[in-house]
């Protein structure tokens, strides 16, 4: 009996000792691992610092300007390329459709800053506008449900090339409003006056999206199903009386070189 | 008798109540107690008591010894237990040191980054490795040196051998190796050579912000610019970057245009400032020639000189801004008041004259437009010396600007401020201030009269801006119109940018060399602001010693040199600053910016404003002939 007690306690002590040793070695291992990780973190931080410095160095405005001058046909923006929102005249009253309900989570339609967007935004709009012409276009099928207008990113050159063929044909009778914008490559060699509409294109696209309707030149079925499915509220005001708008647009007959006029006309025709 | 007892426990115990008990047993004793006997000398004189008391004495002795020992032991053990308790109970329970994961967002360096207002890096610390050697451990110095030179070609073989074979235990071989070089040296595997982790300050923007950011020495202590001014802050809080008010894009535009101007007019230098009049932030500040902060040593010391803050110059006609503001603010002078600008003014041995006099009386508006010295003097004559001195003090022209840079110049203020000084100061001579002074004061004149202390640190959008009302709103309104008038019909036409409602004032000052003014070395400047109906930014351009070119018809004045540069700058920075363009001739804009030569602010009565050019027979020092439109 006594021996058993001793055995029991001895066994317990041995087990406790074993566990203690095991734990101790585990802790030691973990500490070594932690020290290794900390060393790595420091190393990574130093590398990040170096990369940041390099990024800043490569983004030096002087250098960027030189590169832009030698590789791009773009110029610095000029004051005349900016238009205040108040300067844009209101449409005639009869062309105003009932205001579309503001969708939650969508950007506001009106006060978009006159900023230059990446050409990709405009391109995707162009691509989705092309959907009816080629039904098996990947854009209709692959459009992510949450992003209705952002089609599968096409190569820019390709999209532009295709858009140039289709867009004029699918335009409603816009009264000479054949849109030169999608055909213009962003890096094309045109001066500022003709370039202004290009920069405003995304703005128009965003306006359309926010108002919950389609691009005017793509009112056909496949694209609309996508649109409607993704909207929380079916936009009842979506089908715009396009001929009416176009008719109201007749007085605004801008010259192709009149960038402001083109912009105003397009804003009016699409709202 | 009682003298024997006073020894207390130290005495050898006289249990018989002192010597009184033993002494009577020895008759005829000649014992006489000494006057101050020591108890230690006592025992030999008590032989009779010894047999009876020796045991007691011994007992007593050991008792005392035990007591002392016990006390010592107790003290020591108490101390040990206290320390033990402190070490175990109160100091983390004797756990081994804590291992904690590093914070991810901290920095490993000991000096904070400096960034611009948009977060672009202006200065950062990079960890580099420096190569050192312990010559005692280098077995074959020649071979080691040979190998080192093969991977670090810029090192000198003989020098290396000397260093490696010395007697010292530590010698630097090369500081701040690149990672590639480090790997190469590491691969050589020379014994006795090792790396030390060091930091090196790196300036991605290079010379673009050199005068503002400054530079550090080899031990990473700031030696100039913000690096010096905020040395303590940068080292004490290395985790948070120091955000400046500069905008790298504006800085680039400013520098580009200043460089072009310096080249075009073969000037020796230039300075430029872009200043936010609403917050007092300096958005861009350039001084040319500049330097590479990576390698500031061994250069022409002239390049280290910051003309925008450290240099103090006689500003010339741009000071007429403050003269006019003073005149309006004193309340006695209106823009339509006439002042004689025909007859020279004589005071003492000086004669003040206009360079190209119009030979007639001028309104205050015309004095500003044509930059007439005589008119300015007549204006200050009406206001008085004391008022001028008080006004210039209020404008901050008597002390440094308070900008955070250590390179802040003290203005040269005349002492005493006599009448002749007040005359010359009215057209910008005799009081030397830095461009920063001028810009901050001019901003306060046009922004509604609020003086903001200029700063190079970005203000939080909700932080309170320290302000001081220095001129009245009415004065400020008039001054805006005067600024605009100079650009629409005066000396600063070439600074105009369509859509941005530019206003400004040209300035040309002859430079003083020794005791004389020199005719052909001058400082040409333009202080512009836009948009004038609601001023937001001041653009200042100062060109040091421009030489006239054929294109400027031999003129190198502010209107020909600095104003076009300012115009080009405004044209480029306007879109960046998100300033909306407006139609200058729309009624709302004219309402707040119109002024004509007669001093009238009513634009409807004097339509069309542009078709009535002022009769100009020539120009004053700080102007160009208005018949030929520059550029």
In short:
The complex is a heterodimer of chains A (271) and B (631). By secondary structure, chain A is mainly α.
What would you say this structure looks like, in words?
The complex is a heterodimer of chains A (271) and B (631). Chain A has 271 residues and is an all-alpha fold. Helices cover 55% and strands 0% of the residues of chain A. Chain A has nine helices and no strands. Chain A has helices spanning 2-58, 61-71, 119-129, 138-142, 156-170, 192-211, 221-230, 242-248, 259-270. The longest helix of chain A has 57 residues, at 2-58. With 631 residues, chain B is an alpha+beta fold. In chain B, helix 3 crosses helix 4 (157-164), helix 10 packs across helix 16 (473-489) and helix 11 crosses helix 16. Chain B folds into three domains: 2-21 and 30-67, no CATH class; 114-244, Penicillin-binding protein 2a (Domain 2) (Alpha-Beta Complex), CATH 3.90.1310.10; 253-293 and 305-593, DD-peptidase/beta-lactamase superfamily (Beta-lactamase, 3-Layer(aba) Sandwich). In chain B, strands 1, 2, 3, 4 and 5 form a five-stranded mixed beta sheet that branches. Chains A and B meet through helix 1 and helix 2 of A and strand 2, helix 9 and helix 17 of B.
């Amino acid at each position: 009996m006594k021996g058993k007690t001793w055995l029991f306690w001895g066994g317990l002590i041995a087990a406790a000792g074993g566990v203690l040793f095991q734990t101790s070695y585990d802790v030691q291992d973990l500490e070594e691992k932690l020290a290794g990780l900390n060393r790595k973190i420091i190393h990574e931080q130093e590398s990040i610092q170096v990369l940041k410095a390099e990024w800043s160095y490569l983004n030096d405005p002087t250098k960027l300007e030189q590169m832009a001058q030698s590789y791009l046909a773009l110029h610095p923006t000029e004051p005349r390329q900016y238009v205040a929102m108040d300067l844009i005249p209101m449409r005639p009253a009869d062309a105003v459709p009932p205001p579309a309900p503001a969708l939650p989570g969508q950007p506001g339609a009106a006060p978009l800053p006159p900023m230059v967007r990446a050409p990709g935004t405009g391109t995707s709009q162009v691509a989705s506008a092309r959907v009816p012409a080629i039904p098996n276009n990947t854009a209709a099928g692959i459009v992510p449900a949450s992003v209705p207008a952002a089609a599968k990113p096409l190569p820019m050159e390709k999209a532009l090339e295709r858009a140039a063929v289709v867009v004029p044909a699918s335009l409603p009778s816009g009264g000479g409003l054949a849109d030169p914008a999608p055909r213009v490559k962003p890096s094309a060699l045109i001066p500022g006056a003709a370039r202004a509409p290009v920069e405003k294109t995304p703005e128009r696209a965003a306006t359309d999206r926010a108002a919950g309707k389609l691009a005017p030149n793509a009112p056909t079925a496949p694209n609309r199903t996508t649109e409607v499915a993704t909207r929380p509220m079916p936009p009842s005001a979506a089908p715009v009386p396009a001929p009416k708008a176009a008719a109201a647009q007749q007085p605004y007959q801008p010259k192709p070189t009149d960038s402001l006029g083109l912009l105003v006309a397009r804003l009016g025709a699409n709202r | 008798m009682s003298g024997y007892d006073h020894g207390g426990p130290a005495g050898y115990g006289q249990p018989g109540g002192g010597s009184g008990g033993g002494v009577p047993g020895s008759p005829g004793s000649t014992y006489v107690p000494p006057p101050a006997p020591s108890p230690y000398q006592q025992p030999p004189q008590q032989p009779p008591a010894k047999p009876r008391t020796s045991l007691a004495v011994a007992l007593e002795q050991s008792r005392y010894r035990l007591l002392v020992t016990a006390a010592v032991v107790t003290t020591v053990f108490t101390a040990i237990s206290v320390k033990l308790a402190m070490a175990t109970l109160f100091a983390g329970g004797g756990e081994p040191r804590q291992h904690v994961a590093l914070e991810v967002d901290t920095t490993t360096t000991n000096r904070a980054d400096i960034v611009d207002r948009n977060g672009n890096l202006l200065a950062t610390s990079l960890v580099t490795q420096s190569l050192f050697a312990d010559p005692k451990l280098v077995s074959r110095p020649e071979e080691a040196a040979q190998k080192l030179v093969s991977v670090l070609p810029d090192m000198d073989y003989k020098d290396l051998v000397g260093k490696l074979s010395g007697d010292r235990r530590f010698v630097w071989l090369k500081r701040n190796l690149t990672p590639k070089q480090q790997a190469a040296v590491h691969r050589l595997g020379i014994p006795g050579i090792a790396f030390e982790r060091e930091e090196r300050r790196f300036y991605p923007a290079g010379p673009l912000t050199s005068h503002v950011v400054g530079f550090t020495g080899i031990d990473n202590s700031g030696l100039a610019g913000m690096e010096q001014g905020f040395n303590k802050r940068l080292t004490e809080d290395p985790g948070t970057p120091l955000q400046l008010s500069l905008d790298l894009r504006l800085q680039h535009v400013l520098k580009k245009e200043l460089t072009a101007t310096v080249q075009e007019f073969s000037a020796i230098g230039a300075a430029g400032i872009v200043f936010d009049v609403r917050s007092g932030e300096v958005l861009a500040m350039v001084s040319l020639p500049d330097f590479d902060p990576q390698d500031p040593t061994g250069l022409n010391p002239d390049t280290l000189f910051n003309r925008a803050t450290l240099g103090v110059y006689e500003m010339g006609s741009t000071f007429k801004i403050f003269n006019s503001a003073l005149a309006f603010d004193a309340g006695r002078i209106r823009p339509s008041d006439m002042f004689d600008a025909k007859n020279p003014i004589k005071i003492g041995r000086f004669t003040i004259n206009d360079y190209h006099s119009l030979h007639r009386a001028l309104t205050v508006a015309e004095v500003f437009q044509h930059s007439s010295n005589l008119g300015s003097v007549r204006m200050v004559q009406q206001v008085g010396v004391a008022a001028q001195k008080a006004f210039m003090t209020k404008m901050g022209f008597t002390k440094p600007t308070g900008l955070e840079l250590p390179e802040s110049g003290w203005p040269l203020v005349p002492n005493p401020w006599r009448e002749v000084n007040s005359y010359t100061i009215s057209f910008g001579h005799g009081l030397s201030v830095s461009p920063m002074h001028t810009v901050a004061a001019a901003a306060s004149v046009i922004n509604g009269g609020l003086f903001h202390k200029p700063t190079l640190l970005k203000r939080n959008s909700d932080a309170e801006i320290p302000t001081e009302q220095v001129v009245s709103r009415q004065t400020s309104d008039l001054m805006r119109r005067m600024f605009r008038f100079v650009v629409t019909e005066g000396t600063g036409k070439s600074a105009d940018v369509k859509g941005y409602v530019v206003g400004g004032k040209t300035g040309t000052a002859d430079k003083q060399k020794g005791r004389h003014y020199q005719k052909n070395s001058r400082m040409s400047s333009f202080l512009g602001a836009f948009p004038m109906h609601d001023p937001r930014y001041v653009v200042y351009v100062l060109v040091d010693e421009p030489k006239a070119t054929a294109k400027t018809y031999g003129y190198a004045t502010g209107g020909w040199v600095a104003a076009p540069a300012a115009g080009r700058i405004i044209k480029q920075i306007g879109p960046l600053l998100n300033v909306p363009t407006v139609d200058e001739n729309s009624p709302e804009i004219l309402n707040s910016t119109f002024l004509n030569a007669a001093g009238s602010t009513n634009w409807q009565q004097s339509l069309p404003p542009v078709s009535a050019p002022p009769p100009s027979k020539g120009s004053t020092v700080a102007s160009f002939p208005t018949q030929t439109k520059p550029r």
